């Protein structure tokens, strides 16, 4: 029987997600609906549904946006061809790509231009990986595992550099990097690691929490990479963990042998979902709900420059 709930900190929205969601909301405020968005602005079903209710229209491809309209590019980044397609349709592009993802794109271009084979550590098919590989497709090889690293058909003295998806498991990525360094001692590395601060912080917060909980619930959507990594971090330590979109996904069978439940949320999950899960536990008789440790993140990203110009123009005309 559950006696207490501990909330991990930090959790929830990161600066890149907040910037992307704010971008769509401010465009809706400024112009009214519809506002077109390429792909899900962030990987969270609740956020997408809320924005759809306000008039956002999500499309899978920029070529589905009517000519001459405005399109917002998601936080995950896009391949260069997307900008070309948008220009050919006369679209106004608002780029809500997370600045930390943009950093990885810049690295990919620079390494490729300098003659390196770029080894991208990431997950096939993830939007961020698709966008990053699009920067230098002929020079980039995707590495998803230590086995992939060991199987690379490259000479030991090949000019290679690595970059990574920003939402990976810190531990697993470290193992892959070690494997690459063993094979290619001269491999070029980013000056600062590519896994973003929010992904790392949320994984460390979970590790810190695991010593005190019998079960971990991670609030996040199934297509959220960083949320899935939080589940894996717990399970790798022998603690049962489940990914839930919201409180309706909680299976009471999970709680049968749990006295203390940990709760965290992925970087694209709004805090209101944590509050709803807490309310669910209160309704089931749990009175002790508290933060395990309060850690503040003070990272902020400015809105996309295109949007800042529009907002400044609107303010000057009002």
Notes on the protein architecture:
The protein folds into three domains: 4-13 and 197-291, 4-hydroxy-3-methylbut-2-enyl diphosphate reductase, catalytic domain (Cobalt-precorrin-4 Transmethylase, domain 1, 3-Layer(aba) Sandwich); 15-97 and 301-317, Rossmann fold (3-Layer(aba) Sandwich), CATH 3.40.50; 100-183, Cobalt-precorrin-4 Transmethylase, domain 1 (3-Layer(aba) Sandwich). The chain is 41% helix and 17% strand. Helix 4 (99-113) runs parallel beside helix 5 and helix 8 packs parallel to helix 9 (225-236). The termini are far apart. It is of the alpha/beta class and 318 residues long. It contains eleven helices and twelve strands. It is flat and about 60 Å long. The strands form three sheets. Strands 10-9-11-1-12 form a five-stranded parallel sheet, with helices on both faces. A four-stranded parallel sheet has the order 3-2-4-5, sandwiched between helices. Strands 7-6-8 form a three-stranded parallel sheet, with helices on both faces.
